[in-house]
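Dear colleagues,

As part of the handover before I leave the project, I'm documenting each prediction I ran so the next person doesn't have to rerun anything. This entry is a single chain, and its sequence is reproduced below.
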Amino acid sequence: MTTRLSWGAAALFGLALHAAAEPLPATTAKLVPEKSQIAFVSKQMGVPVEGSFKRFDAQVAFDPKKPEGGSVVLQIDTASAGFGVPMSDAELPKPTWFDTAHFPQASFRSSAIKALGEGRFEMAGKLTIKGVSKYVTVPVSIVSSGGAYSVATGTLTIQRLDYKVGDGEWTDTSVVGNEVQVRFKLTLAGLGPL
């Protein structure tokens, strides 16, 4: 059960999806939380296990037609990580895993956004989990869902041990895999046309 905890932690990393400290451009989109998801998948004893983060926020400010000047910042409430299994979920906030008392948030802060064409982008930036920051590149696809919404989706693979998620006995990757896949679907209102 406790092994499932590392998955949640790993998800944070991936999650750690986007951020930026630059001034916001004219086009600012608003996250629609009830239509958005951040999930993480890791392997426990070789079996894929999926968890999710229930609370997160994003500041998205960029023009899809001129993404270079934009920024994305994603903040994830680490205490909201869970697998839907009470015993495992109770372990995730502890120091061995997310240590939510000292590190209540994981974040992604973009430093560069590059258009790849056909609604695809590459977002490079700093992912911070448990006080450890690493530079990552996140592939993102954006589609219009009709009406006022756009949906950004992507997948990022991270190594949980890079972020000290699953300390002590949990550093044994034969029990809980080191690789964690973070998948996100962020529904945005007010993003400019693609």
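The helical segments are 3-15, 86-91. The first strand starts at residue 28 and ends at 31.

All the best with the project,
I.
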